[in-house]
Amino acid sequence: MPRDYRLVDGDLLTLDLAVIKNGIAADAAISFIVGIRRDADAVALIDATERALAAAIEVARPGNRVGDISLAIGTVLSDAGYSINTEFGGHSIGSVMHGDLHIPNTGRGGRGYELRPGLLIAIEPWAMVDTDVLVTDGDGWTLRSSTGCLTAHSEHTIAITDGAAEILTRPV
Fold first, then answer.
1. Could you give the residue ranges of the DSSP H alpha helices within 60-150?
2. Per its record, what are the GO molecular function terms (predicted)?
């Protein structure tokens, strides 16, 4: 972390990590609670981003569109009562970390780029408790909500195949 802060029991922390192997990038994020203290609101927020990610991966199939992924994410997060930042979202990925294709975290089904086998994308639902505005800290890197409320973020890089999407960043 690019700042001087000691994590304490109960903190909600998101790690967003990327690697490049053999010239291909992969991007993944996980939100978790540090230590043993479990705030119910933090647990629910993390769970919502994980459910949104699973719903998005389920619709990431050939013939569907980016809007179908966005709708799946937005529906889960909105139904859970969370604010959704639309500035940040998923993206195409491959020889570069952030490709031109943007995948918003809310949207309308049946719209946008058509998904085709061979496409690599990172899907990353973000949710916040009481605002949809993220700000960047003075370190130029750390993102947080403008109100200081809890935020969570889950992410996988997937490959669109002829059938179900293949998760490329699943823990082994």
1. 66-79
2. metalloaminopeptidase activity
The answer to whether residue 140 is domain-embedded is yes
Quote the distance between the C-alpha of residue 97 and its chain's center: 14
Tens of pLDDT, residues 14-36: 999 999 999 999 999 999 999 99
Q: What global pTM score does this model have? A: 0.94
24 in a domain, yes or no? yes
Q: Helix, strand or coil for residue 138?
A: coil
CA–CA separation, 134 and 14 (whole Å): 14
Q: Which two tokens stand for residue 157?
A: 């890089």
Give the CATH number of the domain where residue 145 resides. Answer: 3.90.230.10
Quick one: tokens of 118?
């061979």
What is the radius of gyration, based on Cα positions, of the chain?
A: 16
> CA-to-CA distance for 106 and 72, rounded, in angstroms?
8
In the chain, the number of structural domains is 1
Q: Which domain holds residue 135?
A: 12-167
Q: Contact, 115 vs 58, CB < 8 A?
A: no
In a domain, 2, yes or no: no
Distances (CA, A) of 172 to 6, 30, 163, 167, 168: 29, 15, 22, 11, 10
Q: In 10 A of CB 13, how many CB atoms?
A: 12
Residue 73 φ then ψ, to 5°: -65, -55
